[in-house]
Structure formats: C-alpha cells, structure tokens
C-alpha cells in the first residue's frame, strides 16, 4: 500500500507527463505512446499516477529531450520540502547511532 507521500509523487509525475505530452502537441495518449515507443496501455496509466520504472520515465524524457533534473525541477517543490525534512531527521538519527557505537568501545 502506498503512503500519502508516494501517492502524491505518482500523481505529480502523471500531471507533469500529461503537461509535457500536450505541450509537445499530442492530444492523444495512444499516438504519443506509439511515437515515444512506450507501451500504449502503460503510458495511460502513468499519466493517471500509476507507478513507473526509472527506465520508462527515462525513455519518455528522452523523447521530450529532458533530463531527470529538468523534469523534477518544475511542480515538485512542495514534495521536495517534505522529503528534505524527512532526510534530515534520518541523518541526525544515523549520527547519534555512530556516537553511541564509538563510546561503547
């Protein structure tokens, strides 16, 4: 089962893919998927927020001539803040563990 953050990420990726497709002049998911050489049925799911592999995302971005960095630079600001806060807490916890291990020796 996906967490709320994961669902939000998938939906944001789907929205971004939809916007890129439309910006490229494709009104049809089917025609875009065919041109981008992505399985038609899967591509429709990606735009709806279904999980996709890095390989599939890379193939789609390659078609749009975008890097992963460029793709995630727009529309993901709110999510980045949430991830950053979580990562900071995890790093602090890891540092405390190291300190405890050193003092036990």
Description:
This protein has 105 residues and is mainly alpha-helical. The chain folds into two domains: 1-74, Orthogonal Bundle (434 Repressor (Amino-terminal Domain)); 76-105. The chain contains six helices and no strands. It has helices at 4-23, 29-36, 40-47, 54-64, 68-72, 77-104. Helix 2 (29-36) packs across helix 3. The longest helix has 28 residues, at 77-104. The radius of gyration is 19 Å and the shape is globular. The mean pLDDT is 83.
Task: Please provide the ordered H/E string of secondary-structure elements.
Answer: HHHHHH
| Fraction of residues in H or I helices | over 70%
- The dominant shape is globular
Task: Give average pLDDT, whole number.
Answer: 83
- Tell me about the biggest sheet? none
Bin the strand percentage. under 5%
């Amino acid at each position: 089962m996906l967490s709320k953050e994961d669902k939000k990420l998938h939906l944001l990726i789907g929205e971004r893919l939809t916007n890129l497709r439309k910006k490229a002049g494709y009104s049809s998911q089917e025609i875009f998927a065919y041109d981008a050489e992505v399985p038609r049925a899967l591509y429709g799911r990606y735009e709806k927020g279904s999980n996709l592999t890095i390989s599939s995302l890379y193939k789609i971005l390659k078609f749009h001539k975008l890097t992963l960095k460029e793709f995630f630079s727009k529309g993901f600001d709110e999510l980045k803040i949430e991830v950053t806060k979580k990562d900071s807490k995890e790093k602090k916890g890891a540092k405390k563990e190291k300190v405890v291990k050193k003092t036990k020796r």
